[in-house]
Design goal:
2 domains, globular, Mat_intron_G2, about 5% strand, mainly alpha, two-stranded antiparallel sheet, Group II intron maturase-specific domain-containing protein
Length: about 240
């Protein structure tokens, strides 16, 4: 499994780097396989990843007793879960996501006769694919994304490439990494109405808004900045619902 290779490669790294790397792998694989009967397999994988995390900690602190390692790296890091065996970093508060926290989503059967090549069913396939994607932004922005059909109103291009789900666990990992990077670097901005009669809030590409301001000397008003939603919280809120 990729997690085993990653844990070996991360020897010498700190706990936060281990968590950041393994979380992408765990979320990518759990997002891809969550449509199957995966509860028992997810539990087994959690135990396997726990063993990898403990082995990493033991390697980093070869001279420390087991009780010291457990007290430092394991505890109830996830306040929403009553699990004291969650691997985490007490300095940053980050913790390792578990496969079992992913809600199983049964595969929805395609309606009879619906072909993806039928141009009359384009809207049906667009809605179906969009439901399979895990959003990594807060709930209000996700509603805006749906209202805009996932596209920037200025250029018409996709905001988060969220009109189709990744087709493999590794593609899920890459999608999660790219989306988190887009949010953290503020590649997407939200605008708000300047007056009650102005258009409603919209999501735009940051570079599209900059071009609009450069061309016209003015642009859509930005809404007041919100506190960023922690990555782990957005995963729990949407991917695990």
């Amino acid at each position: 499994m990729r997690a085993a290779t990653a844990s070996r490669d991360l020897r010498g790294s700190n706990a936060e780097a281990v968590i950041r790397t393994l979380n992408l792998i765990i979320r990518g694989w759990s997002a891809y396989f969550r449509i199957g009967v995966s509860s028992r397999a997810f539990s087994s994988l959690d135990f396997y990843v726990w063993q990898l995390a403990y082995k990493w900690a033991k390697h980093e602190h070869a001279n420390k007793p087991k009780d010291w390692i457990v007290q430092r790296y394991f505890g109830e890091f996830n306040p929403r879960r009553g699990d004291r065996w969650v691997f985490g970093d007490r300095g940053s508060g980050r913790f390792l996501t578990k496969f079992a926290w992913t809600k199983i989503v049964r595969h929805q059967l395609v309606k009879f006769g619906a072909s993806p090549d039928d141009p009359a069913l384009t809207e049906y396939w667009t809605r179906r694919r969009r439901k399979d994607v895990i959003p990594l932004i807060d709930k209000a922005d996700w509603h805006l994304l749906n209202r805009q059909n996932g596209r920037c109103p200025l250029c018409g291009a996709l905001l988060l490439h969220a009109d189709h789900p990744p087709s493999s666990p590794i593609e899920w990992e890459q999608w999660l990494r790219a989306t988190r990077k887009a949010i953290s670097r503020k590649a997407i901005v939200i605008t708000g109405p300047g007056t009650p009669d102005a258009p409603p809030a919209q999501l735009l590409h940051a570079h599209c808004r900059q071009r609009l301001v450069a061309a016209t000397g003015k642009g859509p008003r930005l809404l007041p900045a919100r506190e960023p939603v922690p990555f782990e919280n957005t995963i729990r809120r949407y991917a695990l619902r």
